[in-house]
């Protein structure tokens, strides 16, 4: 039995929990920078949260210019705002880009240099300014993860900074904040979260050396991540379609947010794999949302990994409510089918061609995907360039049989 669990110092979950934000922020000092985006900055609920923090005796500066996919210039602007505000903590209120911005800003504000200095794993030299993460979507799980993903104009693909010191100090997860998410965003974010659960649950299982968690941010499949991943799969698969159809149902919103947070915990420790590696070049070429790309790819990646994952896929099927079969192989097939059917039901394209991905780009995308070493090496079945091409070809044509 082997497990690794890295997490915020505190996670507060539940409807209305945003009301504690002021007291939480005040516990870190009397100055705070709040990172959000332009839309949320003008929202009455956001303004009420800022007023709550101010009422707790905290001087607040708001950076409301977060840009999706987090370009380097956005981080530079936020760091400049932090240097002017001299905060004791940084509060992130918003989706994944807002949360990642707060992490990257805390890092550069604390240790100096540029974000580029910290690309990769275990490059953060020490503790960073505390981050309080308040997600408003149920998708990335960034409120509990050690990762900040950003866009560098000198890089073709997105890049990441991965270090346990980037895990927020506190996460406040209030599903009421997701009630205004439109159906399309709910679907894409939920699909992203489900892929986190699936890829964490089926990640490679490594030798359980005593130093493994000190040598890798993402240690692979383990008993603790499995617990979180499987429960995330159960919750998200049971709530996603209903929440997309009727976003006013707080019970479904709560299950989605809790599932996304658990999936974040799972991949924060186990890590993701081939679907995420392949999405980076696909997303760069098609300019489509991360969640759409990983979800479109996931059934084909599952098909490729089937020989190594039959037992795991059977357990995924059971978690998704698939009627039991006596045969593990049949249940595994049903698990792949259940994932594909759920994604189709919430509007995720079945093929990469529907995303605008062109067949002649398969070779280039496969080669680029192989550069995401932490993801490639985390896959339960070894991956080479030709394997990546095969997955992309099957996903482009919508033909899993190409992987048989």
TrEMBL record:
<dbReference type="Pfam" id="PF25137">
    <property type="entry name" value="ADH_Fe_C"/>
</dbReference>
<dbReference type="InterPro" id="IPR056798">
    <property type="entry name" value="ADH_Fe_C"/>
</dbReference>
<feature type="domain" description="Fe-containing alcohol dehydrogenase-like C-terminal">
    <location>
        <begin position="186"/>
        <end position="395"/>
    </location>
</feature>
<protein>
    <submittedName>
        <fullName>Iron-containing alcohol dehydrogenase</fullName>
    </submittedName>
</protein>
<comment type="similarity">
    <text>Belongs to the iron-containing alcohol dehydrogenase family.</text>
</comment>
<dbReference type="Pfam" id="PF00465">
    <property type="entry name" value="Fe-ADH"/>
</dbReference>
<feature type="domain" description="Alcohol dehydrogenase iron-type/glycerol dehydrogenase GldA">
    <location>
        <begin position="8"/>
        <end position="175"/>
    </location>
</feature>
<dbReference type="InterPro" id="IPR039697">
    <property type="entry name" value="Alcohol_dehydrogenase_Fe"/>
</dbReference>
<keyword id="KW-0560">Oxidoreductase</keyword>
<dbReference type="InterPro" id="IPR001670">
    <property type="entry name" value="ADH_Fe/GldA"/>
</dbReference>
């Amino acid at each position: 039995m082997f497990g690794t669990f890295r997490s915020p110092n505190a996670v507060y979950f539940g409807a209305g929990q945003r009301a504690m934000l002021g007291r939480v922020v005040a516990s870190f000092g009397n100055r705070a920078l709040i990172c959000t985006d332009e839309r949320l900055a003008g929202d009455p609920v956001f303004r009420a949260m800022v007023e709550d923090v101010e009422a707790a005796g905290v001087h607040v500066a708001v950076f409301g210019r977060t840009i999706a996919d987090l370009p380097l210039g956005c981080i530079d602007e936020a760091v400049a705002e932090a240097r002017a505000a001299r905060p004791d903590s940084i509060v992130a209120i918003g989706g994944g880009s807002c949360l990642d911005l707060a992490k990257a800003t805390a890092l550069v504000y604390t240790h100096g240099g540029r974000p580029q200095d910290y690309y990769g794993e275990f490059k953060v030299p020490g503790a960073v300014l505390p981050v309080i993460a308040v997600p408003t979507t149920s998708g990335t799980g960034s409120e509990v993860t050690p990762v900040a993903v950003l866009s560098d104009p000198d890089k073709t693909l997105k890049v990441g900074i991965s270090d346990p010191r980037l895990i927020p100090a506190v996460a406040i997860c209030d599903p009421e904040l997701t009630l205004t998410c439109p159906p399309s965003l709910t679907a894409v974010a939920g699909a992203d979260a489900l892929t986190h659960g699936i890829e964490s649950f089926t990640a490679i299982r490594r030798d359980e050396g005593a130093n493994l968690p000190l040598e890798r941010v993402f240690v692979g499949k383990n008993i603790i991540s499995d617990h979180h991943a499987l429960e995330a799969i159960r919750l998200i698969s049971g709530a996603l379609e209903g929440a997309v159809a009727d976003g006013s149902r707080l019970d479904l919103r709560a299950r989605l947010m809790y599932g996304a947070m658990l999936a974040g915990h799972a991949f924060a420790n186990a890590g993701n794999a081939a679907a995420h590696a392949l999405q980076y070049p696909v997303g760069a070429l098609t300019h489509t949302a991360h969640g759409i790309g990983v979800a479109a790819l996931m059934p084909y990646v599952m098909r490729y990994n089937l020989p190594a994952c039959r037992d795991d896929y059977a357990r995924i099927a059971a978690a998704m409510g698939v009627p039991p079969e006596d045969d593990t192989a049949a249940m595994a097939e049903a698990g792949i089918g259940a994932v594909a059917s759920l994604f189709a039901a919430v509007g995720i394209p079945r093929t990469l061609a529907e995303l605008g991905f062109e067949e002649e780009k398969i070779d280039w995308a496969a080669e680029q995907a192989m550069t995401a070493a932490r993801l490639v090496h985390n896959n339960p079945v070894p991956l080479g360039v030709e394997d990546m091409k095969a997955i992309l070809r099957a996903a482009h044509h919508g033909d899993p049989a190409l992987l048989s």
